[in-house]
């Protein structure tokens, strides 16, 4: 029997069972290693289970709960188990039911937020709410903040729903309300005074609506317990065993909630309890002792400081909870020893941690593979080709993952995976060319190339917002159609559209003039050079920079002072880098060729494959997942660790923990890749190997191409641009010409109106309806054809329903004759695997490749 003797609801003692220490043939302990068994059976006021990556913490936690119930140390209703996600809570509940069956009914196994909602629903009337209060999700909160900011004209000071909501959330997670923040703010800062007013109005509006936002759920529960000790005593008495998973990710509000639930009930509150406390519940001083607390976590996996997680909660656990025991789970059941040794070596350089070393009994396994590319394309091609090798060796695509530090790194990776016909998905993010800000910028380029495209024109009018509403847009579109003009010409004649106001007409005309300038630049301007020849088209990067500069798209995102908008600005800078790289690879090709390449890349994803897709994700998203093979890309100073972390207190330590998390996701194969140069913000800069690479013992990494080798060759042998691997080369690289693994062909110009021929109407609603119908039809045409509509007219190769089968001979305009060895995908995404007589194996997108079937 535990020292913390418990009672059932009738007040009768609970006892019996086989004792808290289990027996040799105990099914809840059999199969556990000694440390796991100790974590299951140890009893005391507080227990910290330091669970290394892959050490079986979920199993330990569920077996501990089952052991408490089976040994009759607690009724299920006296157990509160808290996790961070609904998925984790459901998994824990399912496992416990598998161990105990119906005996597990009545437990609270939930997230922090769910547990707090249950408490607040029961107690809401004590602090002025009704139990049917509304919970505002993030969209509701943004809408409310948008209204408040507009009412206060706070947008003129740079306030947005995003940055205001983020700051309010951080304060609430620190249990700071508007009044408390006002008492500590800088009174001389007008922005601070305005923010306090936004915060105060936000609180008032929530109160008026009888609503809580997500951060309130925990904070208000803490305030309830502190303001009403009698309410706190109800739950402190009920929950005698509290177990918290992922404790390293708790913020201050969550930590405070745990502290309140694990306080002893003082004698003055004991006297008020209903039903009255029994003698066996009390200690010698007349108090009901604190509940037993068990937390599971790993300080080495604390990577959410940006969300408010405080690593001190787990590092200082023994100080916060006197008499706490610590059990370390160091045996790993996921990874090979070489992978674990690398993880131990990296994380060992952090000082803010509980010392532990992961080990496995499964053997050393393969060495870690390292590769240094000359550029991010070089790096990406290596990743793509290694994935191909793994897949041919029997590893499913779904068991392979590629990690990166920031979302802006995905562009080169996606491009090479698509060209290699490797199916992939982006987890926790949006594919590069599907991101809203990238599509906004691409709309400008599309309209510059094709001033008759209604979809691109409609999008650019509102990006960034310039006050052109739906009705003004419709009148302009109908004017364009009625007069047989391009959209650019219609914008230049905006003064003739009297149905819209003079201010909007001036805005539209100015935008039209910029688009016309950009169009002339993209086409060569019609000028002649000194030899009398037509001037070549301007570099795509110059056209892109003109658009970004004239519209202030990047500056307006930066001005919002919100991390999400900073990331969007980085993506636009990455798009500028894409354009400049295209100019280097294909000098003089021009805007149409660039748009053709991008549209084909954007349209060729979602390839079908029976073995699933490769997963691309940030390293933060990867936490909690595992894969047979993992690629960690961009292992460079400035990326990993990220530049923003260098000057932050504890920033480097958190980046090192992020590296540790990434490494320990791999079961069998780990690849660490980097580039010696990387295009960022439109410029190519030298990239230095990450300090974390230097922390990994040399013997653990098998360098296919080391940083020293790349530097020594002077950067003249870029494999991505000059030397794709030839068939049967067994990993060696030959300096042969570059060809896309999936070949496309297209070029030339041509444009045509996508307008729908309908008579003009003076009725305002009719004008709007007519424009909506035009856009709908244009979008349908775009969806059926893929890519950007009316971009290159009929010059793009379209093989229609060309049928190919294994064994067919084909002829390629560039590669010559070859034989089909296989077909994958379906419909417009069919990929032909072909061995050509001259260039070896290639993959071709059947619908668009410049090929024809040869009759033998």
Q: In brief, what are we looking at here?
A:
It is built from 32 helices and 23 strands. Helix content is 42%, strand content 13%. The protein is globular.
In terms of topology, how is this protein built?
Elements: H1 34-41, E1 46-51, H2 57-70, E2 79-83, H3 86-100, E3 108-111, H4 112-123, E4 134-136, H5 138-152, H6 161-173, H7 178-184, H8 190-208, E5 211-213, H9 214-227, H10 229-238, E6 241-244, H11 252-261, H12 267-270, E7 292-297, H13 312-315, H14 317-320, E8 325-329, H15 337-347, E9 368-373, H16 376-392, E10 400-404, H17 410-419, E11 424-426, H18 436-449, H19 454-461, H20 470-482, H21 487-492, H22 502-523, H23 540-551, H24 553-559, H25 563-585, H26 591-603, E12 614-618, E13 627-632, H27 643-646, H28 651-663, E14 666-675, E15 677-680, E16 683-686, H29 691-694, E17 701-705, H30 707-712, H31 719-722, E18 742-743, H32 764-785, E19 809-812, E20 816-824, E21 831-836, E22 840-845, E23 851-854
Parallel strand pairs: 1-7, 1-8, 2-3, 2-6, 4-5, 6-7, 9-14, 9-17, 10-12, 10-13, 11-12, 13-14, 18-22
Antiparallel strand pairs: 15-16, 19-20, 19-23, 20-21, 21-22
InterPro entries: DExx_box_DNA_helicase_dom_sf (IPR013986), DNA_helicase_UvrD-like_C (IPR014017), DNA_helicase_UvrD/REP (IPR000212), P-loop_NTPase (IPR027417), UvrD-like_ATP-bd (IPR014016)
Biased composition (Low complexity): 753-762
Keywords: ATP-binding, DNA-binding, Helicase, Hydrolase, Isomerase, Nucleotide-binding
